[in-house]
Specification:
Length: 403
Amino acid sequence: MFFLSFLSIANTLDAQSVITGAQRTEHYLPVLKGKQVAVYANQTSMAGNEHLVDLLLKNGIAVKAIFGPEHGFRGTADAGQKVANDIDPKTGIPVISLYGSKRIPSDEDLKGIDIIVFDIQDVGVRFYTFISSLEEIMEVAFQHSIPFLLLDRPNPNIHYVDGPVLDRKFKSFVGMQPVPVVYGMTIGEYANMLVGERWLKPEAMSAYDKMKAAGLTALQVVACTNYRRTTRYELPIKPSPNLPDNSAIYWYPSICFFEGTVLSEGRGTPRPFQYFGHPSLPNTLFSFTPVSMPGATQPKLKDQQCFGWNVSGSSNESFGRTAGAIQLSYLLEAYRLFPEKDKFFILPKSGDATASFFNKLAGNAMLMQQVKNGVSEKEIRASWSADLEAFKTIRSNYLIYPN
C-alpha cells in the first residue's frame, strides 16, 4: 500500500513538471521568425496560461491564418457538427474551419503561408478524429512544399495498446490507418510514424522526399520534456465537450463503441462516456435521461429515460488508467440484455451491416459478428493479439518518451 501511494504521489509530481512542446518556445520561435505562419489549433493549444496564438503574436510572429478542427477553434461545437469559417474576435485573424464545408485548406487558404504549426491535445484513441485531421493537414502541407512543425503534448492513454487493428477496407475519418483503437503514442510520435511508414498519400510522400532532398526540414516535432510513458497526466483543459475529465477520457475507448448502437453513450448527461443505456433495457438498472446541453444539443435518446450503467464513482473512476485495457464486458452484456437484437446495431439505409458506423469504429466487421455470436471477451481479445504484436513492433521505431 505504501508503495502504491508513493508511486501515485511520484506520478503526480512528474505530471506537474511536464513541459509541453508549446512551452518550449526557444525551440520553435526562432524557426518562425520572419515567416508567414498558419496555426492549426483549438482551445487546448495553451502554453501555460497563454494561448499559443496570443504567445506567437506577442513574440512578433506573423500569424496569417488559424485552422480549426472538429468542435471548432474554441472547442464548443457538438461532435460531428459542421463548423463555419469565422474571424477570431480577439486577434482579428481569419479562422478557417476544416470541419465544415471542407477538411483541408484550399490553395487560396495556403497562399503565402511559409510554415504550418500544429498544436492539438489528443487522447490516444483511433476514432478521436484529431489524428485524422493531422494526417490530412500534413499531406496538404507537403504537397504545397510547406514545412510542418508539431508541438507535442502528453497522451493520457499512452500507457497501453489495445483493441482491434483497423483493416483498411474500413477506412474512414474515424479510422484512417492500420492502428489499434488505443495506440499508445503521443500525437508527435504518431506524426513520425505516418511519415516513417509512408502511410501518407503517394503524392504527399513524393513531395516530402523532394523537400528533404532540398535540405528542408519537412516535419519537425518539438517534444515534451520531463515526460515518461508512466506519467499520469491530468489534462488542464477538456479536449472536447464530451470528454470533460480524465475519467471520461479513460473510459472513452471502451464506451465509444456504443455510438454505433442504439444505446446512449451518455452525451447530454453530466457523465458522457460513463453513463450508457437504453429505454428497452431492464428498469432495475441505473437510470438517466439525456437532455440538450452545450456540446450535446441533440443527444441520442434525448428526453427519454434510459436504463443501463454508471461507471463513474470511486470504484470505477480510473478504470482505464489502472486496467490498461479496453473493457468489452458492458458491450457484451448490453447486447445480451437487449430485447430486439436485430435493432441493437445502427445500420445504414442500405441495410448493409458492413458499412455500419459500428464497424468503422471497430475497424473491421469481425467484432460485430463476435458480439452477435456470443463470443467471450477472452476469445475476442485473443483474435486481436497477433495484429497487436505486429503493430507494437512498428510503433517501437517511433517512440520518443521512455517508460
